[in-house]
Amino acid sequence: MNREVFIGIELGSTRIKSVAVDFCGNVLAKGVSEWENRLTDGEWTYTESDIKQGIARSFAALKRDYSHKYGEKLVSASAMGISAMMHGYLAVDEHGKMLSKFLTWRNTVTGSEAEELTRLFRFNVPERWSVAHLYRMIKKRAKHLEKLHKVTTLAGWVHCLLTGKHVVGVCEASGIFPVDGFAYDAEKAFLFDNLINRFGYSFKTTEVFPSISEAGVFAGTLTEEGAELLDPTGEFKAGVPLCAPEGDAATGMVAANAVKAGTGNVSAGTSVFSMTVLDKPIGGIHREIDFVSTPEGLPVAMVHCNNGTGDFDDFVGMIRESLSLFGVGTDKDELYSRLLAAAKDADADVGGIVEYGLLSGESILGTVRGKPVSVRPPDTELKLKNVLRSKLYSVFAVLRIGHELLDTLRVKCSRMTAHGGYFKSETGLQIASDALKIPVYAYPGAGEGGAWGMALLALYAAKYSGSSLGDFLTDKIFAANFIPSVAYPTEEGSKGFDNYMAGYKSYLPYIKSIVAKDVLSR
Question: What per-residue confidence (pLDDT) applies to 445?
Answer without folding.
Answer: 58
